[in-house]
UniProtKB/TrEMBL annotation:
Gene3D superfamilies: 3.30.1180.10, 3.40.50.10170. Keywords: Lipid-binding. This is DegV family protein with EDD domain. Pfam families: DegV. InterPro entries: DegV, DegV_C, DegV_domain_contain. One of its GO terms (molecular function) is lipid binding.
Amino acid sequence: MRIAVVTDSTASLPPEDVAAAGLVVVPLHVHVGGQDHTEGEGVGGISPGEVAAALRAREEVSTSRPTPATFVEAYEQAAAKGAEAIVSVHLSAQLSGTASSAESAAGDSPVPVHVVDSGTIGMALGFGALGAAEDAAAGRPVEEVVERLRRRVAASSIRLYVDTLEHLRRGGRIGGAQALLGSALAIKPILELRDGVVEPLERVRTRGRALGRLRELAEDALADLPGWADGAGLAVQHVDARERADALAADLQPQVEEEVRIVETSAVIGAHVGPGTVGVVVSPRPQD
């Protein structure tokens, strides 16, 4: 059975990875100063760097999910290319209605669609989508592809440092980190995605200590992988903070055999966490 894997642009996957894996990526929308943009490259698209610049200029920035009609179009195109089933995996339903749009569209798809709420974002979602595409290409049954995908995203961790909580507050995605608002400016928050929402993890006093703590937390996660894991994917994500990301990735590289991915976080996620954000994703890889 030919299985297509569909994800969304918050997976933050570079175009070359999308093409190599044969993924279908449905873009979310970013609204800047009243103008609507689809996330990504091309006409009408907007990049993470452009969103970071708009936030620094204090322009009004918001985001929205794809419509069900957009998903129906993606599913029809996948079927036209020979897909007999589709696995559609998306960012946490606690943060966006994207998975809901996918569910609504599934009934109008010409082939069966298995919608998966990843419960996560960024490269934690991206690694899951890439793994699902590998499993599909290896000829695994769709039920097994979905089971391995669910297991991987559930075991993945994403921890991040943000320069300010203001963007999360404005976008309504602040979750339990609301409790940190009003803290002394010298306190730097480390956040994590827990049960699909943003929650506070720790508070430290300097940016340098925050980045060092991200490294330690990633090392702890790598040392405590599930018994079913065959290593893990490791990615450092950032929003207009490449130097910080490069330094953190260099510190983490000795911990894994494969190259640590350095990925610019998607424009939609960047709109909510703001410039200067750095995050680390550890994604356990299921054994064959």
